Amino acid sequence: MEKDELRNILKNIQDGKIDPDTAMMRLQNLPFENLGYARVDHHRNLRTGYPEVIYCTGKELEQVTGIASAILSQGSNLLATRANPEIFEAIKKIHSAAVYHQLARLVVVEQQQIKQITGTILVITAGTSDLPVAEEAAVVSETFGNQVERLYDVGVAGIHRLLAGMESLKKARVIIAVAGMEGALASVVGGLVDKPVIAVPTSTGYGASFGGLAALLAMLNSCASGVSVVNIDNGFGAGCLASIINRQVDQALHSNIEQG
């Protein structure tokens, strides 16, 4: 349930347009709805500014569609991560506006227009093999109302490719650096810019990369300050964190303008 919708219910009670029993029926699934196999958190948007997201891996198709139906019934937007084409088709039967981002493995349903955030999130990758994780971060950021730019295949093996994109690095408010192998990209970027860098290690690489563990440890041990690290292949988490940072800066800037 959105803040505006909750405010309207309270206002309608105050104005005598609906009685308390009717309001109770509309609010009966707050703060969560118990489906038996899941407790859908309808209050999450009120607390965090974003509705609950469905992580599809490990869930049965009926469970995913059940959770999706519960979220969509509240008028909220829907984001389902790690979704395959079968899941997309099932959600599209529930809501025709469902859109599938195949590379990012995301299903998005927009029922309400998202308030746009000024400032740019830049998503960069070391290589083309990192694109699925990078696109997950990029599309999540866009779904949450951010302007996103992409700078792909600029790893340290050809660092001149990264340096050629310095204009994009400088104008971004937040940077998400996605890399596998030895994960050096995040440290290099962190040493070039004066803004938050969110490092995303990927499981890309040969045997000694240990499924992304080598990149994770390298990023955690970055000698560049201002670099934070999310888990291996966690493009979703990086997109969320970047969006929170961008939104906080936006709110602070607007507050200063209003007070100024």
Q: Features of this protein?
A:
260 residues; 11 helices; alpha/beta; Rossmann fold; four-stranded mixed beta sheet
- Report the structural category: alpha/beta
Which overall shape is indicated by the principal axes computed on the Cα atoms?
globular
CATH architecture of the largest domain: 3-Layer(aba) Sandwich
Helix content: 40-55%
As laid out across the biggest beta sheet, the strand order is 8-7-9-10-11
Instruction: Give the beta-strand count.
Output: 11
Residue runs with pLDDT of under 50 for 5 or more positions: none
Distance between the termini: 34 Å
| Arithmetic mean of pLDDT | 90
Number of domains: 2
Q: Give the number of helices.
A: 11
Residues in β-strands, percent:
15-25%
| Main beta sheet strand tally, sense and closure | 5 strands, parallel
Q: Would you kindly provide a written description of the structure presented here, covering whatever features stand out?
A:
By secondary structure, this protein is an alpha/beta fold. It folds into two domains: 31-109, no CATH class; 117-248, Rossmann fold (3-Layer(aba) Sandwich). Helices cover 43% and strands 18% of the residues. The chain contains eleven helices and eleven strands. It has a five-stranded parallel β-sheet. It has a four-stranded mixed β-sheet with strand order 3-4-6-5, sandwiched between helices. A two-stranded antiparallel ribbon has the order 1-2. Strand 7, helix 6 (131-143) and strand 8 form a beta-alpha-beta unit. Helix 4 (61-73) packs parallel to helix 5 (85-94) and helix 6 (131-143) runs parallel beside helix 11. The longest helix has 25 residues, at 235-259. The radius of gyration is 20 Å and the shape is globular. The mean pLDDT is 90.
